[in-house]
């Protein structure tokens, strides 16, 4: 059995050698011209350690007279079982170079980077200051918004990644009302950089008004435009997949952020449903659904 494990690990070693030869062609673009970094990315040191350990054990206890004579079928079966055992023990996992290549080809790093950039460059500043901004807004506008303790920024995330300058363009039941007091921060060499948020009025089916702070998650615009650029090699399916990955990543970031507790709401919706007509009031209904759910949660907590 140990001999078959050696053969299995040997094939893995040969595959890593082939991968190393491929990574050498990307030596300057990926590894800054360093052969050692390319070698480490192509080989999993755990594979090499197991291979050396198994060879050592076989060498110490090797006795040709004790080796069983198996048929070809049994040898292949044992080799398969060794590969399966190696996979279950995590010995057949992809190397760092393979993971990097998969990530690059499937654009898996795009959404992750956009979500983090959106948080560290915008949400990390705006969300913690939202309560104070809403308090100032309510003082000037007869408490138009709900309590500053429960008011949230509603981030719109359409899976199509198509966003509009004015929400009224997409849904007549949504109308811009007013800006809340802006936030000024010195950032990236810009003195007093302005961060603004808008209050919108949302009408339900009975034309009753609801007021909330709403805006699109702006990185979606980048995903949408990438699918229109041929050199980006970014298909419509890639865009939808990245939009979902962006949602999951952003949600994880915000839920684990100590600076942004209960001050956001991700409004994720499919604005390109298959097999059914597009509703002109889809967006307002989605926002209202979140507002009513939020009211229900607040009511339950107050009991």
* Beta-strand content: 5-15%
The largest sheet, given as strand count, sense and whether it forms a barrel, is:
5 strands, mixed
Low-confidence segments: 1-6, 61-67
- The secondary-structure element order is HHHHHHHHEEEEEEHHEH
The top-level CATH class of the largest domain is: Alpha Beta
Radius of gyration, CA atoms, in whole angstroms: 28 Å
**Percent range for helical residues?**
40-55%
Tell me the count of domains: 2
The CATH topology of the largest domain corresponds to Rossmann fold
> What gross morphology would you assign?
elongated
Structural class: alpha/beta
Write a concise synopsis of the structure shown.
By secondary structure, this protein is α/β, with parallel strands linked by helices.
Key descriptive features of the protein:
303 residues, disordered N terminus, 2 domains, elongated, Rossmann fold, two-stranded antiparallel sheet, alpha/beta, 11 helices
Any overview of this molecule?
The protein is elongated. It has 2 domains: 104 residues; 195 residues, Stimulator of interferon genes protein (Rossmann fold, 3-Layer(aba) Sandwich). Helix content is 52%, strand content 14%. It has 11 helices and 7 strands. With 303 residues, it is of the alpha/beta class. Strand 5 and strand 6 form a beta hairpin. It has a 5-stranded mixed beta sheet with strand order 2-5-6-1-7, sandwiched between helices. A two-stranded antiparallel ribbon has the order 3-4.
